[in-house]
Structure formats: structure tokens, C-alpha cells
Design brief:
- The complex is a heterodimer of chains A (about 325) and B (about 300).
- Chain A is an all-alpha fold.
- Chain A has helices at about 5-10, 30-70, 95-105, 105-135, 145-155, 160-170, 175-185, 195-225, 225-235, 240-270, 270-275, 290-300, 305-330; strands at about 5, 80, 85.
- Chain A has a domain at about 105-300: MetI-like (MetI-like fold, Orthogonal Bundle), CATH 1.10.3720.10.
- In chain A, α2 crosses α13, α4 crosses α8 and α4 (about 105-135) runs antiparallel to α10.
- Chain A starts with a strand and ends in a 5-residue tail after the last helix.
- The radius of gyration of chain B is 24 Å and the shape is globular.
- A two-stranded antiparallel sheet of chain B has the order 2-3.
Chain lengths: ~325, ~300
């Protein structure tokens, strides 16, 4: 897709590099750098703002975060100001102790277990429902755009608003869902107050939030599959299920691999749903890694910055490992993603 | 059979309304199948719409009846007038608007040229930059929130809108750059070439030719980063305290907490927050997925 910058330079006035247009291979490093600058300076100038911003506001905090995770920093020993007094940081470097604690302790592993369960169930159900709805909406059906608009609504409303809406519906004493059940003679369900029900409830809300994106993305993918392919398959006697397996699914592959990756990462880090619905409770039943790390640094006392950073770094490592493996698996299956 | 001449559609310009553009007209569906399809769609639509609709209906009931199951009960706007009169809702709204607005403008302006460079040129560092943009989008809040909190506290920017804007740029900049790359990819390269033939520098090509064509893409990117900042919860809850500094995400939490819930003002506030966002969203959404998945798929 992308053009070699060196190819477009000669057309630009004033940008012609001195001394011919040969590729700079085999030249000494300073010369190569000078050639590189002459050839690519505008590409570099264009990306400079983003590189600077990323370096300053993401790179530097990231380094600080990794550093904090190697210390015993908490609320009492970080640099801080109390009134006019300025207290310097007194935390100490403790090496990998925090990581050893996290990986050998129960809390991290059990939270990780639930986080994985949460991610897998949310992503699979969301993908399944999104695929089903996209397939239905891809047919000729009366009122299609109307249905589509209604189904997209959960995506259009800001997430935190929807989560509060669900909290309203889930309310144990007076929520709509339990009143509905009471109307049918069923006992009130402790939607958010029982560990198992709470897990079910948060997953349901996240699925509700996630289906519209999945559906719209997959619908776009479906519409890019040429109709002739279905026709040809039909001529050859393929039934609906076979057409789905051998045309629809392979045709959706580029889109579905992307949305599954995105959706997995988003769900893994889905802070608002858990935080606003249950705050991780009851107990720690619905606490995923991100909300627990948040809790360490902002909800407990004294705030445990070191442990929070440790969890943060571990989450990042897990996600990057997942993305790398995912990409490798796709590549061995012949995708050039 | 009339499908032979059906034009191929790509995700980039997939039409949503022309029925059956990607689907061949196969044999007629049986009435039973039609009923089943419509039932499924109606059921799904009800589930999708109901929570939102319920909040809207509740906001129109007197606060005392908030938890009744009637769809309408003495409709009134008193929740709205009460919300605007007795709570700092408008302040929160203003704070959110300010923070999200600045984030969007700064994010889009910073990222536009990068999106273009990554889309058009091969230069040393391009691959690394693309990976960085991709990976920074997976950054969990948890890895940055503590160090940013400490840095902001050192700079005295905690509890300030400016601090939150800077923080949100960590999300907005990589995202905008990535998404705009997707949009620039859809603009034919011939346009750039014609500009260069006519003697424009790469910057001239970008600002005079490509950027005007990419306006819809810019608008969608801007809108999406606005919505992201508008709905952000974690940083806002951690950094902003005190009634007059909260953004909407923090403010709404004031109505519903462990001590009880004021559903009346909460639902009214929800409606006022959601309606403008939802309206614009429904206009912009067709381009959203295109930009995002195009950027990701074409790598």
C-alpha cells in the first residue's frame, strides 16, 4: 500500500537529495543517516508530534509505572505535599518482590481466573449474537434499517449511562426485573448481591453493550462478500449450512479476526461496567484485574501504588502476549494480517 | 435471478439500506421463516432498547413513583427542573464538554499528519510506530493511572481540567492516528501523485488536497474521541474530587451510591447526557466501523 518516500521525493521541488538517487546501501553510517534525513525528513516531520506526545505522556509514565512496580511505594512514602511542607519520596527499591508476591499469591491468580472467564464468555457470546443478528439483517427483510437503528442504540448511549440504567433495572428490592418476576410469582433474584448472580449480571450487561459494535462490523464484512459466490454454491447444490460454513465464515475472516482481537482487549480492560455496577463486589466476586488494580491505588488505605503498578504491568504483558500469539496463529493459517 | 450484475461492495463503502446488495435473491422465504426472523429481530430490539427507554420513562415520572412498573404515571418534567435547579449538573456538563472538547481538538490536530504519513510513506521507523500505536491502545488504565496520578499531583494538576485533558490524550492520540490512517487509506493515491506532478510538496499535498477530502473521516474520528472522553470513568473518578470539578461520569455516581439512590435526578441526567450523544452517533456510526476495521485490517 504505502509508497517509498524515496520514490516521491524527486517530484517535489527542493526536496531532491544531493548526489543522486541510488539507494544508500553499503555507505558509511553518517552518510546513510544524512541520506535518510534528506529522503525521509518530511515523513519524520509529520510523525514528530505524535512521537513526542507518546514519548512524554505515555512513555514517561510507563517507565515510572514499571519503576514503581519495583519499589514498595504507597501513600505514606511517595513524594507529596502536606500544606506547605514538602516531603520527599522515601520508598525503596525491592526488585521483583512485588511480582513474586502477585504470582505466588492467591489473589492475583483467582482474579485472573475470573477475568479470563469474563473475557471468554463475553467475547464468545457477543460474537455469536452479533454474527446471528448480522446474518439476519443482511437478508431482504422488511424494516431492515429500522431494526438496525434500534439494535445499535446500546452503542450510541454513553457506556456509563447504560450501566446506571442496568443498575436501576437490577435493583433487588424495587428494580424492574424483580417486579417483573414477582408478577410471574417468582422470588426476587439478588442480581448484584449474590456472587454467582452478580457474575452473570455483569456479563449480561457487557454483552448488551458489545453486541451492536460486533453486529455492525460483521454486517460490513457480510456485505463485502460477493453474491455470485452464494449463487455458484447454490448451483453446486450446497445447502444453507454449507454456504454459511464455506463462504460466509471464510469471507468474514478479515473482519472477524480484527473484531475478536479488539473485543478481547476491550473486555479484558472493561473498567466501567464492573466499577459502576458492582464495584467488584459482593466481596471481590466480580473484581477483574483492572478494577482490582484501581482499588489498590485509590480505594484502600493506605493506597498501595506499588502493587497496583505491578498488576498494571502484568495486565499489559498478558495482553501483549495474547496479541502476539493471536497474530502468530493467524499467520500460520495463511493470513497476512 | 438478477444478481449477476450486483456490484461488489467493500467494507469501505458498504451501503446499509439497499436491500440485498450483498445477498443474492434466492428462492422465496417461507412465511414461517419470515415470522421467525421478525420475531428474533423484534425480541433483540426490545432487549436493546428497553433499558434506555425505561430510563426515559422513569425520568418523566414524579420522583416518588420512580420504581413503579407503570410505563406512564402522572408525566411531569419536575425531575429535569429539579436536576437543573438543585444539583451542579450544568457545571458537570460544562466540565465534560470542556475536557472532551479540548481532548478531541488536540488529539485530532496532533494525529492528523501522522495518520497521513503512516498511510502513504514507507520510512524507517514506520513499522515501529504502527506497533506503538497499536500497543498503546491495549494499555490498561491500570498501568498508567498510578504514575500519571503521581506526576499530576507533583505538577499540581490533579482536580484540574487541564490534567484530565492531558491524561485523555494518552488514549486519544494513538487512537486518532490509527483511525485516520484507515481513512487516508481509502483516499486514492492518484490524488497525491497529481499534486506532486503539479509541484506541491508533501505537506502541500496533505493540507491542500488530502485533508479537505478526508473531512468526513476527520469528523468521525473527532466525534469518536469526543465520545470516548465523554464516557471515560476511571481517570475521571480517580483524579477529580469535589462537586464543582466532577465530570458527568463522576457526577452521575453521586446520585447512586452505597447509601441510596436518587433515581429521579439520575434518570433525568442520563437522558440529558445520552440524547445528544445518541443522535449524533446514529448519524456517524456508519463510518465508525469502516475507519476502525479498515485501519486494522489493511495494517
Amino acid at each position: 500500500m504505502a509508497l517509498h518516500t524515496s520514490q516521491s521525493v524527486p517530484k517535489a521541488p527542493g526536496g531532491t537529495p544531493p548526489g543522486g538517487l541510488r539507494r544508500p546501501g553499503g555507505l558509511p553510517a553518517p552518510v546513510r543517516l544524512r541520506r535518510g534525513l534528506a529522503t525521509h525528513w518530511y515523513a519524520w516531520a509529520m510523525v514528530a508530534p505524535v512521537v513526542a506526545v507518546i514519548g512524554v505522556i505515555i512513555g514517561y509514565p510507563l517507565v515510572r509505572g514499571v519503576h514503581l512496580s519495583l519499589t514498595d511505594a504507597d501513600e505514606r512514602n511517595v513524594e507529596r505535599s502536606i500544606g506547605v511542607n514538602h516531603l520527599p519520596a522515601t520508598y525503596e527499591f525491592v526488585g521483583l518482590d512485588n511480582y513474586a508476591d502477585a504470582l505466588t499469591g492467591d489473589q492475583f491468580l483467582s482474579t485472573l481466573g475470573w477475568t479470563l472467564m469474563w473475557t471468554v464468555s463475553c467475547v464468545t457470546v457477543t460474537f455469536g449474537l452479533g454474527l446471528a443478528l448480522a446474518n439476519i439483517l443482511n437478508r431482504r427483510i422488511a424494516g431492515r434499517s429500522f431494526y438496525r437503528m434500534l439494535l445499535i442504540l446500546p452503542w450510541a448511549v454513553p457506556g456509563f449511562v447504560s450501566v446506571f440504567a442496568w443498575r436501576f433495572l437490577y435493583n433487588e428490592d424495587r428494580g424492574f426485573l424483580n417486579k417483573l418476576l414477582a408478577g410471574g410469582g417468582i422470588d426476587a433474584v439478588p442480581w448484584l448481591n449474590d456472587p454467582t448472580w452478580a457474575k452473570f449480571s455483569v456479563i449480561a450487561v457487557n454483552i448488551w453493550l458489545g453486541v451492536p459494535f460486533m453486529m455492525v462490523a460483521l454486517l460490513g464484512g457480510l456485505q463485502s462478500i460477493p453474491g455470485e459466490m452464494y449463487e455458484a454454491a447454490e448451483m453446486d447444490g450446497a445447502n444453507a449450512w454449507q454456504r454459511f460454513c464455506h463462504i460466509t465464515m471464510p469471507g468474514l475472516r478479515p473482519v472477524s479476526t480484527t473484531v475478536i482481537l479488539l473485543s478481547t482487549i476491550w473486555t479484558f480492560n472493561m473498567f466501567p461496567v464492573i466499577f459502576l455496577l458492582t464495584r467488584g463486589g459482593p466481596g471481590e466476586a466480580t473484581q477483574i484485574l483492572v478494577t482490582q488494580a484501581y482499588k489498590f491505588s485509590f480505594e484502600i488505605s493506605p493506597r498501595d501504588f506499588a502493587q497496583s503498578s505491578t498488576w498494571g504491568v502484568l495486565i499489559l504483558v498478558l495482553l501483549m502476549a495474547f496479541a502476539a500469539v493471536y497474530r502468530r496463529v493467524l499467520r500460520t493459517q495463511g493470513d497476512t494480517w | 435471478m438478477t444478481t449477476a450484475a450486483v456490484p461488489r461492495t467493500t467494507p469501505a463503502d458498504a451501503p446499509s439500506t439497499p436491500a440485498g446488495a450483498g445477498t443474492p435473491r434466492r428462492g422465496r422465504r417461507s412465511p414461517l421463516a419470515s415470522v421467525a426472523l421478525h420475531t428474533t429481530l423484534i425480541l433483540a430490539s426490545v432487549i436493546a432498547v428497553f433499558p434506555v427507554l425505561w430510563v426515559l420513562l422513569t425520568s418523566l415520572k414524579p420522583a416518588g413513583y420512580a420504581t413503579t412498573t407503570d410505563f406512564f404515571k402522572e408525566p411531569t418534567f419536575e425531575n429535569y427542573t429539579g436536576l437543573l435547579r438543585d444539583t451542579p449538573f450544568l457545571t458537570w456538563f460544562g466540565n465534560s464538554l470542556l475536557v472532551a472538547g479540548f481532548t478531541t481538538v488536540l488529539g485530532v490536530f496532533t494525529a492528523a499528519t501522522t495518520g497521513y504519513a503512516v498511510s502513504r510513506f514507507r520510512f524507517p521507523g514506520r513499522r515501529g510506530l504502527m506497533w506503538t500505536l497499536l500497543i498503546t491502545q491495549m494499555f490498561p488504565v491500570a498501568v498508567l493511572i498510578v504514575p500519571i496520578y503521581n506526576i499530576m499531583s507533583g505538577l499540581g494538576l490533579l482536580n484540574r481540567s487541564a490534567g484530565l485533558v492531558i491524561t485523555y490524550l494518552t488514549i486519544a492520540v494513538p487512537f486518532c492516528a490509527w483511525m485516520m490512517k484507515g481513512f487516508f487509506d481509502t483516499i486514492p493515491r492518484e490524488i497525491d501523485e497529481s499534486g506532486q506532478v503539479d509541484g506541491l510538496t508533501p505537506f502541500g499535498t496533505f493540507f491542500r488536497l488530502v485533508l479537505p477530502l478526508a473531512k468526513p473521516g476527520l469528523a468521525v474520528t473527532a466525534f469518536y474521541s469526543f465520545i470516548t472522553a465523554w464516557g471515560e470513568v476511571a481517570y475521571a473518578s480517580a483524579f477529580m474530587v469535589g462537586d464543582e470539578n466532577l465530570t458527568l461520569a463522576g457526577g452521575l455516581q453521586k446520585f447512586v451510591n452505597q447509601y441510596g439512590a436518587q433515581w429521579g435526578p439520575m434518570t433525568a441526567a442520563s437522558v440529558l447526557i445520552a440524547v445528544p450523544a445518541a443522535l449524533v452517533f446514529l448519524f456517524a456510526q456508519r463510518h465508525l466501523v469502516t475507519g476502525m476495521s479498515a485501519g486494522a485490517v489493511k495494517g
